[in-house]
Amino acid sequence: MKAECDAGAGKAQCLQIYKGDDIENAEWTYFYSTIEDFNFEPGLFQKIAVCEIHLNENDVPADASSIKYKLVKVLEKKDDPRMILNDIWAATHVEGVALDTNNNEPPYLEINIAKLMISGTDGCNNFSGSIKKLNTNTIALGPIAMTRKMCPNMEVPDRFSKSLTLSTTYKRDGLTLYFYDSEGHETLRFNKAD
Fold it and tell me: Who wins on pLDDT, 6 or 35?
């Protein structure tokens, strides 16, 4: 996966790498260099063999790496299972109760896997935040920033926001996405929006 990273003087898209076999519990890190002959394909995990070529320090500019990376072989390719979340989701239930959104717009959640970010509305206020950890059934959200306007009825927005912060696991069943808390209780239910 590629994600936005700080690279020297500005932002860049960096590969995220993991040097291990346990993808479910991978600790992804940014890779700030390039890999010669490697073709990044969004939505795929690729297990690759890479060789490091140590360059003569006299031939390397002051702000460049003295190591060059070259693809040896692509060992395996498989779909990234997290991509099933990458979409816009309209909330239908909070804590198992169908939403009545007569006074407000319906809450929705947009999940951007490439940036590991969430955004949307709770039905009144807009929010955005990071995804700290994501695997095939676990989601850990980072701090969520939210606007602070008051709407005529804050019951649904407040319940939605609280349930979102309590969510730790998920399941997708067709066009429906379920979030659960740490005890396995349903916190939120969504339908695919488009």
Answer: 35
Which own/partner contact pairs does 91-95 have at CB distance under 8 Å and 24+ positions apart?
Answer: 91/123, 91/160, 91/188, 91/189, 91/190, 92/189, 92/190, 92/191, 93/186, 93/188, 93/189, 94/156, 94/159, 94/160, 94/163, 94/187, 94/188, 95/159, 95/163, 95/185, 95/186, 95/187
pTM of the model: 0.76
| CA atoms of 106 and 91, how far apart (whole Å) | 7
Q: What is the CA radius of gyration of the chain?
A: 21
Q: Which among 185, 192, 145 is positioned nearest to 169, based on CA atoms?
A: 185
Question: Mapping DSSP to helix (H, G, I), strand (E, B) and coil, where does residue 80 land?
Answer: coil
Cα within 13 Å of Cα(9), Cβ side: 2
Tokens 């169908």 belong to which residue?
Answer: 98
> Of 102, 61, 64, 95, which Cα lies nearest the Cα of 181?
95
Burial class (CB in 10 A: 0-12, 13-18, 19+), 120: buried
- Taking the C-alpha atoms of residue 12 and residue 20, their distance in angstroms, rounded to an integer, is 25
Edge to edge, the sheet with strand 44-54 lists 35-36, 67-79, 44-54
Per-residue model confidence (pLDDT) at position 9: 63
Distance in Å from the first CA to the final CA of the chain: 24
Contact, 120 vs 111, CB < 8 A?
Answer: no
